User: What shape does this take?
Amino acid sequence: MSQPEYDDLATQLTRSLTDRADALSATPLGLAEVRGRARSIRRRRTATALVGAAAAVALLVPTVALAQHSGGGSAPEPAPAPVTRPTPSTRAELANADGAELDVSKLSPGAPPKLGYEVGGTYHEPGGATSAVGTTAPVERMAVLADGTLVYLTRDQGNAGSTQIQIATPGAAVSAPTEAGDGLAVNTRRSLAVWMSGDGRVEGYAVDGTSLGAFSLPGKASGDSPQVLAVTGDDCGPGGSCQVLVRTTDPQTGENLSWIVTPDGGAQQQSGLGFQSLSDMTARGARVGLTGIRHDGTTCSGIAKPARPPWIRTCLDQLVSFSPDGKAVSAIASQTDGAGSTDLAAYDIGGRGVFFDHPSPANPDQQMTVQTLVWEDDTHLLATVYQQGRWSVVRFGLDGSMEVAVPGVAGDIAYSPIVLPGERS
Amino acid sequence: MDRPPEDRTGATAVAERRTARDSDFAAYLAARQPSLLRTAYLLTGNRHDAEDLVQTAFAKLYLSWDKVRDRGSIDGYVRRILVNEHNSLWRRAWKRREHAADDVVLHALEEPHHDLPDDGVGPALWDVVQTLPRRARAVVVLRYYEELSEAETAAVLGISVGTVKSQTSRAHAALRERAPQILNPRTSEEDDPS
Assistant: This one.
């Protein structure tokens, strides 16, 4: 009779926590104290954005070939670019293109995204056509595969809700939902997408290769809360060479653990590279992730290859994901809050600094938040941006250009109503 | 030198708007502070960290106040800031470095005073909850104190409902394993050979 025990435990927990919390007397936290802490946070952000200490950024001369995603796997790796300027002491010195504030209201409209996207249950094709996605719950993430297959990760907001996968192949209705975990990743060629099954295994769907159709990898990453972050390679069938980056949580310590899961049943923990947690990888073995958290709450990130020291380290921004050609890395603010990032940048992993850095406007009325971002191609990022009560998709070029790709949609600051394919948040 | 009249008008308007903004925020701060502190206390386990956490969460909310156009969403927004701040890696590292030496003193000073009659279950459960990993503890607090649904808990923590379920199940298992005689006194009485 487990149900009565469950209910009893739930009741006892609620009573225990409520008694404990209710016994806490009110605290006299005033507006002045909050404003003081806010000023401190703002100073840190400003210092991080404008006066980053030279020690915080180390752009090291790469001694290894640059990384590439699997899509460019057969092409020769580009030669490492030397550091051509002194060690920078400010972001202005780092920037070699543009550091303009991101104010959506001042941007011109541009072309719609090259890949489809979803808003409120409607799929918007690149050509402008729209159709109902037909999923049983709201779409949280999506992937668009090369043949037009759409993979949706949905989250039911109801009390009995769950995270599920639904697939729509070209010309067919969306499939019945299957239980899923966190994360949805797609490879560079968009030939396959992967996600976590309900029991913590990597599952996926491929539109070519030996793993054509639905597949499941036998290996399993150890730990709680598994989440798919990235996939490289084109073949997840038996003997295939795909690699899936999975993050879990140590059930004892709560620390993040990073794993590479492969079709041969392997699940190798990624350690020894100086990372606290990984966020992306390339087929050539480059890794990007957090290397440390500082006392003031800002983070430090790095890019490295196994058995080699990081060749880029920065505490100015938090590095997120490689561009498809592996030559750039997207970045958000070093410290974010519950809503997202107030800064967006792209780093040149050839060691020449940053392609662009666009902070939020200083004017409180114009402040913006970037919640999710995705590489549209080798030289453009798309990001969902909140400003003045509306969510837009903005295209950022590595040349410093900015334009609106999807006009503003009214929405809550906490959740963007626009879902970009393969987005990272 | 006097500024032109239009400058004074502009400056006055900005000042008035700032005053109205702060008044608006102060009202929200006063209304929500006790509730948020209680949640923070359950997450952190001690008052010192809870107050620090709440102050940071409100400060971040203050910085974002003009961005949050939908006032109905503020509660969820600030709760999300609070939980994310609590879960962030740096706080774990900070706690290990800064608080390891004086944990005993802090607990002795900050333990809330209980006047309610207690059968011993509450403190025992509280002790076990405090040993849960950070995210599992957050799930327990959001589910059983904030009384959020599994889906709402998942949304606040940015994890799947399946993960909420597994974390809850794991927490239940830990509680049953570490406090069996308190959760099921009849079993312990029956097992007692005396």
Notes: The helical segments of chain A are 2-22, 31-50, 91-94.
